[in-house]
Fold each of these.
Amino acid sequence: MVFRKLIEEETRMGPFQIMLATLMCFPLLLVASHNLMQIFTAAVPAHRCHFSIDGAHKANITHYINASGGANFSKDLWHAFVPMDPDRKPEQCLRFIAPQWQLLAGNKSSVGYETEPCLEGWEYDRSIFTSTIVSEWNLVCDLRSSKEFAQSIFMAGVLVGAFVFGGLADRFGRRSVLLWCSLQIVAMGSGAAFSPNFSAYCIFRFFTGMGMCGLILNDFSLAMEWMPIKFRDIVFTVLSYCSTVGQLILAGLAYGIRDWHYLQLAVSLPYFIVFLYSWWVPESARWLILNNKPEVALETLKWVAKMNGKQEEGEKMSLEALKAEMQNEVSATTSRLSVFDLFRTPRMCKITCCITLVWFSSSFAFFGIAMDIQKFKLDTYLTQVIFGITDLPLRVLANISMIRIGRRVTLASCVLLAGLLVLATLAVPKGVTVCLVSRGKS
């Protein structure tokens, strides 16, 4: 009972647990910054076809300057080269085959003239987004789906990371994988910032997604396995709030850093700090016990006891007692479980399928809404702040409801309410849409 008495059955949070929980919060604050980063790094600025002025155009330009007095010349010149869309904004993917100088008068329609694709590239409005992957690699028009493809690649990395780093953590330890994933995020995230082309960017983002998933899994595992059972729910809740606060951090960073290269670096390099202080974080004593490392486990437990002001209790621990506890733990886990055990009985299969469906639908709706906030046609930074602020009180209410009413009723109510709120956006004015969607997403 050495481990249980010192850690699991403890009635208070010691200095070690408080410090560990604090350290484990920091990497989670930037999780949302990576998951939702393409809201800003892949934002689509207003754009139109680029056109060049040659010698044959100078006479027409001179005539227009003389006729208009030169007012708004540079602002209006595009009317002769680019048609207008139904909203009377420049067409984003078409230009006139030949300049239509008569349109500079401003009283004629641009419909009916021959057009062609943007053969000379695009010009982007950089007043809001100085630089994005869209403007850097021209991911517009025929390549507009590349933005979503890049995010899918990142999420594929998250999926692969769950399988890879989950197994590696059981084999090599939680701390070892946490160290590796922190370093991987720094390296791959920085690599994405300096990507020479879109293909390289997607590759770096894939491995960044892998690292993010491994970090999240082992961050939570390491924190929970060192916490007294009495406080695990509280610590888990606090850790989950960190990702919500991260949405606000992302909005602030993106507002201050408008170039996607620097924003990518700003959310990746801090994980080197995580890599450095993770050397101080001890490996899970439970993992050490289950993996036949009683000497290391004993030294670790004595160190934790000393930090918690229980040095006397720590000195009383013996290797023999820990080995006996290890034998009991190993005996209790002789039958190796796999994912297929979740489908072994009809009841377990039903529960697994229901939870999987809820998790899939919730994640699908969350990312589908969160990654497309630019289509609300409001200030992207403000919308992100609204989404982040809305999440916090709703998460608190959900946690209170789980305690007072129960998990099943709370889960069913939240899923039903989210669906109704999102559906309601079809029948309300545009000004109300963001309010409903932000609550439905949460």
Amino acid sequence: MRNPVKFFIYHALFFTALIIQDTHVSKSFFGEESPYIYYIALCLLFTSITCFSGVITNPGIVEENCETTPFFCTSCQCRIPVRAFHCETCRKCIRRRLHHSEWADQCVGLETQLYYFMFLASEFFFLLFSIIEIIVSLCSFHQIQSENRIFGWISNYFLLLIFFPFLVFYLIQVFILFIQHAFILLTNGNVLGVKKRFGIMILILQKKERNPFDLHLLDLNANQVFFHVNNRVWEVPNTPEMKDYISDIHQCGIDYISE
């Protein structure tokens, strides 16, 4: 089963649990006037759309016989465009590659960076609303009308109790990625690698002072992602930062051929 399919199934199961269990979402679903279900459903819908868009969109795969540049991929044994990187999972070079997304089973690259950023934003609010809803529901202990209130509480919310720790862990992962992608977007930054700590994926970002592509204006950097302004072909800037960039990407299997 592919990761995007798992993603949609897990979200559908959790949304079903919110409806089955005694929650505000359930009450709203069955007729009580409440905005909770609309918040959750809207976030879930937007999350699904952005994730699906990222899955079906070509992230920017480098075709053979692309334009000549001084950058050489040691894995593909060919010249690649400026800011293209090789993906070991896709086994291809991707233009402006940031990292490989396990959720979309696709690289986050030139054409999918915006979708992925919007996905992280909508997923963050979906998880935040869901966790708040679970906490509010679990705090309704005094409403349980049962001789054994503990047993009644567990039977009313056992699905939410199962989902809760996974949602908290997932929220931490999404929040970290969202902050890092926001920084990349605003600084026109580069990703040099990925590491995991306690199962949480963390991007290894190139330092801002070593990034030759930073336009030093937030709107100009953001325009390259949101409106694709001058983001197709980057020139090789003759700056001290470019030497730092060349040194940093060497660890990613990218050689610089000056001749």
Amino acid sequence: MNNFSLVLLFVISLQLHGGGAVTVEGNGFPGDPCKMGGDVMGRCEEVESCLQDGGVVRRDGKVKLCLKRDSKIYVCCRKPRRIADELCRSWRQFWRRDNGECVQETPLIFGGGNAKLGELPPIALLSTKTGNNVVYFCGGTLISPHFVLTAAHCLQSYGLAVQIEVTLGEHDITTTEMAQQDRLSGSFPLSLLHANELNLDTTRTAPTKQVIKVEKIIHPGYAGTEVKYHDIALLKLRTPAVLTRRVLPACLHSNPTELFGDKELTVAGWGYTYQGFGETENILQKVLVPVENHLKCQAKWSKATSPPRGILSDQICAGGNGRDSCRGDSGGPLIDRATVDGKQVCEQTLVGVVSFGGDCGFGGIYTRVSSYLDWIMGYIAPHGSPL
């Protein structure tokens, strides 16, 4: 079969399985850079190899073909899982001191209660102003010096026109900390947005609490609080966060099929602690929550009218028996404190984003971060395309 026939069959297959336009990018050879759309870059790779390695070939409904003069078809391929893992390796230099110890404080307790000061450096607190009052309403997670990940419904609840700020390095919202933190030294990968500016920054210290205005980016598939799917959003910081021992980016969990078994993950926030009544907490709270079997969770939610199609694979169920996120925790992190060879690593990995639940303590639903890596990486590392 000649090259033209192969291309034609490939085009027909793509149209039948997902639709969208297929365009020819040019005579791309393996490893050549190519544009996937906008500023997002990929590399030309044989289509089967790309897909088997977790790569994606479609962006904004389009597929770019890199034609080569042989019997194989090369497409513009991007591998968000590998890009996320590459960024995580970069973050590790900031999470560990020169003597090998972790930068962040180790936890005082492993159940629930007040988090230790500096225990969760990636956590962010969202706020807005009503008159002269500051209203704290949701959580988030720093995932790069320029971006915080949160829930889409947090942004919709106050209206997209409302100005939002994020506070990084927060612990007790009643205190005003004037102390400065030393900036952590390290280099940023060139795949990261504005990496050159970050690498040239000569800032030596930063406030313990960094308060930064943001721009909102809601996932295009989010359709409102009644539907509850694709409940994820990015906040682009108007000025980049300065990385200190109190402010660090989380790694992003990159395995979309991991079931977690009986694993317990950490959820944190300043939300309610008693069935959604009373007041939110002033001090950051954290609790270990067990990941629930997905089939059991689907059955538990099968009679609910919302979400309309039940619990999907890009959602995670966790908590129950009194251990749960609650109102005010929305948008906050579900974190894995990974271990290697039985030893806990320093960096913290973001597995899910607090989305919704029943009564506090019933168990919550979290947006699975690994299902949205392509969308996330298109913003935070548009030029990242490791093969």
Amino acid sequence: ERLDAIAKRLSAEADSTNAEADKLLAELTAIRARARRLRKQVAQATSNADKIMHNEMEHLNAEDPPVNSTGSGAASVNQAVAASPVTSSLALDFNVEDLF
């Protein structure tokens, strides 16, 4: 009788442990799925930022032809880049003079 009670208690503890393990496994699976979604979102955001930056640079080059490092155009390009919401939101330290 005493052994039966011990066996029942151990069986109940095992069932509880298995239920907790199943719950934790489900949580882990959900976390992994969310991590995959976030990685995809980061990759897409990075791609979008690259496209925006490329378009912004094409736009700037169309407005101001290439300049030398001392030309007055360099200052206007620097001002346009600094004022760009893309570059300011990415906190880029970019200067046209650095290219020459």
